[in-house]
Amino acid sequence: MSNPYEELSEKLFFSKEAAEYLGISTQRLNKLVQDGKLQPLKRSSSATIFHIDELNKRRKELAIFTTISQEGGKGMFRIDTRVKQEALNFSTLMNVLNRTEHSLEPDFDEFAKVHDVTAPMSSSDIVDRYSQTFGVEKWRLLGAYEKAKAAFQTLRETDEIIKRGSNDYPPLLMQTEQAPRFLYIRGRISLLFEKRTVALVGSRQASSKACDNTTRLAKILGENGITVISGLAKGIDVAGHSSALKYGFNTIAVIGTNLNQYYPRENESVQREIEKRGLVVSQFSPANKTERWFFPLRNGVMSGLSLATVIMEAGETSGALKQADFALKQGRQILIPESALNLPNVTWPRRYVERGAQVVHNSAEILKALSQSHIFKVENEPVQQTMADYLRDQEKGKYEQGSLFDWFDPVTVGE
């Protein structure tokens, strides 16, 4: 006999599930509801419920917009939130003043104490204030603003901009000094909140053996519910991403360009696949001209999103070592395969071991090290109630928040 609760629950979604179904953030979902573009079936203090028919209607609209955008249409990305507008203003100032985010941010924050930085810079009274404060002619500001705005409008309609300190900002990254003011997001935004994340990094000219080991390790990590993070570079990075995609596991790419660039070109197909099935993260606005020093900066973000970094293979000048430095500053775990210690003319592994990195001999030891560092442990996490249970409790009038518990997941070791 069919269960009416189970049948009905398949057509209903909580807010988080609805956002994932649409491929957007919960912040954007709430904005759609506020704007009347999406109608929930029910809203209460306990839950907001959406019906699948309403979601499918909106999903179809999003698909149309995405298709138009991918065919070259412009203007589909809407600067329709305060965060997006602030990001555009900030990026404009970075360009016209030729300053980095780090150097501009203190002055921008001081300006924000007196003026509304979420208002369009194009309005006459606003641009006057920017001009007077930052010592730039109005015509230069307006020209830079329109150029930056055009660049922002090349983003896809479903892309997101997240500001540091907001509820959508990844908690792990928020704990670090390297957390950028803005993150530009394309793909499954829910992956930003994954509690099990490990970065696989290494040389762009890695040996075939190191790439094979990376492919194998990414699969094992995925089998244990761990999201693989890397930087979409040649060699180790793309091996890790490709393996996660091949076996259907989560992967996050932290890139050193803006979202609209595909670098290196030979990894474009992998990046596009991650956009569909994983998540691509950039700290650089589409109005920024890509610089060589962007790439080591992104290592700080990549490490910040990860609980641990595994350096599969690297030379003495590899960017992977920059990530290891960030990981040490951030108090994150560093794992080094024993094979790296035996590489000729390489001294970095011993230096990092002396600073706290851990040597591992095989995938089993990697998983054991991750388990000891509590990457598998979740503390005080609310029990996830199913929609069917919710419907039963609603009928009984006894809906309560889930209890709290501690648990350890079993560790699956593949060899």
Automatic annotation (TrEMBL):
Among the record's GO biological process terms, what is one? DNA-mediated transformation
Taxonomically, the superkingdom here is Bacteria
Record-annotated Smf/DprA SLOG domain positions: 161-370
Per the similarity annotation, which family is this?
Answer: Belongs to the DprA/Smf family.
Protein name per its UniProtKB record: DNA processing protein DprA
- The organism is Porcincola intestinalis
Organism phylogeny: Bacteria, Bacillati, Bacillota, Clostridia, Lachnospirales
